[in-house]
Amino acid sequence: MKTVLSLAAVAALFFAVHNARAVEDPPAAHLQLVEVEQQTPYLESFAGVTAGTATTSIIRRVSQAGTSSQAYAQFDNHNGDGSRASFPLEVDESDTYGLSAALVKGPNFGVVQLFIDGRQIGETYDLYNATVTVPPPVALGPLALSEGKHILTMKVVGKNDASTDFLGGIDLLVLDSQAAPQPTPTAVATAEVGAPVPATLALTVAQAAFGAFTPGVAKEYTTTSAANIVSTAGDAALTVSDPGKLANGTRALRQPLQVQIAPNRWSDPVSNAPSTITLKQAIEADEPLRTGIYSKTLTFTLSTTNP
């Protein structure tokens, strides 16, 4: 394909919109109440020494009115430097749960933290109270749990100055998927937007002139011209017709005109890509020159093999 032209760009904008559909079915709710004192076997650890004597921590089931099953898991602990009580936790359904726990408080209870599989849940809780009591469950925050076995751990990290010891107590762990942050129902739609690109090969070339030739002086005259290329094709090439010789009427110069184009090939579409055309004309010292203008019409062609 050969052309020396400029095509006007035409763009057509179109949309394809598909109907939106809101989320219809909310996820199934999962609720599991875990009586911690019933989760055996208990896993105990102790890491403290008081007044040079090792202190042993024990987990025991203690009867207590007001608890969910009239008993709670008591961590009979006597130091505050990281002693831990762990309980097996069997999760019935994989989900993201909002967790809460009913903690037991008393006059000899310490400050505790809770963990599931080594990850802390909730904050740090001071379990001191003047009398033994079971306050309403405290929210521990959301946590994604897979179905199957997990480990719930209570860690004693200190105590209130008013407390007489470092005990810990937990009655009930609640796993409630509806208490976890729920995704906002959304409507989903797709829209396609686009515009076609017309086939375009556009070329502009500026006029060029050598200036005046001086008779009787051997010289090579040089001038340049600028070309501008617009191409939507996969490749493009800029060529020039046989330049021949500059002529003034019937009189032609002895040496042919030399034309160089750089760059003259493009391997991708381009917009307003510049190219420099260099023209050279040699004049001999004894070459007769006739008054007037020596000129030649050149044809530049922008073409492609991959439209």
A few lines on this structure:
This protein is an all-beta fold and 307 residues long. 0% of the residues lie in helices and 49% in strands.
List the helices and strands and how they pair.
Layout: E1 2-3, E2 14-17, E3 21-22, E4 31-35, E5 43-45, E6 49-50, E7 53-54, E8 58-63, E9 71-76, E10 84-91, E11 95-103, E12 111-116, E13 119-126, E14 138-145, E15 148-158, E16 168-176, E17 187-188, E18 191-194, E19 201-205, E20 219-231, E21 236-240, E22 247-248, E23 251-252, E24 258-262, E25 265-266, E26 270-283, E27 300-303
What would your notes on this structure say?
The protein is mostly beta strands. It folds into 2 domains: 31-179, Sandwich (Jelly Rolls); 197-303, Sandwich (Immunoglobulin-like), CATH 2.60.40. It is built from no helices and 27 strands. The strands form 8 sheets. Strands 4, 8, 9, 11, 14 and 16 form a 6-stranded antiparallel beta sheet that branches. It has a 5-stranded antiparallel beta sheet with strand order 5-10-15-12-13, with no helix packed on it. A 4-stranded antiparallel beta sheet has the order 1-27-21-25, with no helix packed on it. Strand 12 and strand 13 form a beta hairpin. It is rod-shaped.
